[in-house]
Specification:
The chain is α/β, with parallel strands linked by helices and 326 residues long. It is built from ten helices and 14 strands. Its cofactor is NAD(+).
C-alpha cells in the first residue's frame, strides 16, 4: 500500500515524499507543476502529472497505485496574493480539497493528512497560539485552509457509519524554511528565506519591513520551522492514521519561541559569510508584532520537535539554493 502526496513536486511536498520513503512507506506524487518541479521528485517514485481538480485523474491514480491514504499538500499558498486572486485561491484550495475527498470516497481511500496553515488564526493578539484559539483568518488563503479543515470534519461525520469512515488530521504551521536535501529548495517569490537568498546572490541588500514593533529588537517575531521537521510530522501523522491510533483534528507545528526578522538577517550574514546591514523599509499594513504557536500537542502525538538551530536552518537552505546554481 502507498500514500499519495498531492503537491509532491513542491518544496514541502518533496520533503514529505522523501520522509515517507525513508520510513518505508511507498509515496506516489500527484502534481500539476504549477509551482512544483519535476526534478524534485526522486527517481523511482511514481509521478502523476495533473490537477487535483481533475476528479477522474485523482481517482484513477488512487486506484492504480493502491493508495492507502493521502497527504494533501497541494494548494495555492500565497496569502498576500490571495487577496487579489480570491477566486483562484478558492478554486485550488477549497474545490481542490473537495475533489480529492470525493475521489477518495469513490476509490475507498479513508485516511488523509491535510497540510493546513496557521493563517487560519489571522493575527491573534496573544503571545502563544494554541489549537483552540478562535479562527479569524485575515486572507482568502487563510479562509480557504479553514474551509478545507471543515470539509474534512464534515466528511468524517457523513461517513461515520460507513464501512470505512474518513479518518483525518490537519497540520497548521507558519514559515517553513531550510532544506533536508540539497536537491530541493524553496522557490517561492514571497517567502523571507528565498527573498534574502536571491538578494545576496544578486549582490543586493535585503530589507527589513519595519523596525519599530513592540519586540526586543523592534522587528517582527514569527514561527520559523525546518522543512525536514515538518515532513517528519506529516509521516508520523500518516502512520498513526494507518495504525488506527487516535489523533487530534488539528495540530500546530509551532516553534514555541519564534525568531525575529533581525535574528534571521544576522544568521544570514553569519552563515553565508556575506557581511551586510539590512535596509529598513516601511511597515507592511496589518503586520502584527509577534505570532508564535505552541507545538505541545504535536510533540505529544507526532514526535514533533524543533531539531534545527537558526544557523542550521539558514545553512541548509543556502546550500540547497547554491547547489541549484551550479
Amino acid at each position: 500500500m502507498s500514500w499519495m502526496v498531492t503537491g509532491g513536486a513542491g518544496y514541502i511536498g518533496a520533503h514529505v515524499v522523501r520522509a515517507l520513503a525513508a520510513a518505508g512507506l511507498d509515496p506516489v506524487v500527484l502534481d500539476d507543476l504549477s509551482s512544483g518541479h519535476a526534478g524534485f521528485v526522486p527517481e523511482g517514485v511514481p509521478f502523476v502529472r495533473g490537477s487535483i481538480l481533475d476528479r477522474p485523474l485523482v481517482e484513477g491514480a488512487l486506484r492504480e497505485h493502491g493508495v492507502e491514504g493521502v497527504i494533501h499538500v497541494a494548494g495555492y499558498k500565497y496569502a498576500g496574493v490571495s487577496v487579489t486572486r480570491p477566486l483562484h485561491t478558492y478554486a485550488q484550495n477549497v474545490e481542490g480539497t473537495r475533489v480529492v475527498l470525493e475521489a477518495m470516497q469513490t476509490a475507498g481511500v479513508d485516511k488523509i493528512v491535510f497540510s493546513s496553515s496557521a493563517a487560519v488564526y489571522g493575527t491573534p493578539d496573544v503571545p502563544l497560539v494554541t489549537e483552540d484559539l478562535p479562527k479569524r483568518p485575515a486572507s482568502p488563503y487563510g479562509e480557504s485552509k479553514l474551509i478545507g479543515e471543515w470539509l474534512l470534519r464534515d466528511q468524517a461525520v457523513a461517513t461515520a457509519d460507513a464501512a470505512a469512515p474518513l479518518r483525518h488530521t490537519s497540520l497548521r504551521y507558519f514559515n517553513v524554511v531550510g532544506s533536508g536535501d540539497p536537491s530541493v529548495y524553496d522557490t517561492s517569490p514571497h517567502n523571507l528565506f528565498p527573498i534574502v537568498f536571491e538578494k545576496l546572490i544578486a549582490g543586493e541588500t535585503p530589507q527589513i519591513n519595519g523596525d519599530d514593533y513592540a519586540t526586543d529588537d523592534g522587528t517582527n517575531v514569527r514561527d520559523y520551522v525546518h522543512v525536514a521537521d515538518i515532513a517528519a510530522a506529516h509521516v508520523v501523522a500518516a502512520q498513526r492514521l494507518a495504525a488506527g491510533e487516535s489523533v487530534e483534528p488539528a495540530y500546530n507545528l509551532g516553534s514555541q519561541n519564534g525568531l525575529s526578522v533581525r535574528e534571521i538577517m544576522d544568521a544570514m550574514a553569519r552563515v553565508t559569510g556575506i557581511d551586510f546591514t539590512p535596509k529598513i523599509g516601511p511597515r507592511r499594513p496589518g503586520d502584527p508584532d509577534r505570532i508564535v504557536a505552541t507545538g505541545e500537542l504535536a510533540a505529544r502525538d507526532l514526535e514533533w520537535a524543533n531539531r534545527y538551530s537558526v544557523d542550521e536552518m539558514v545553512r541548509t537552505g543556502w546550500e540547497a539554493r547554491r547547489a541549484a546554481s551550479v
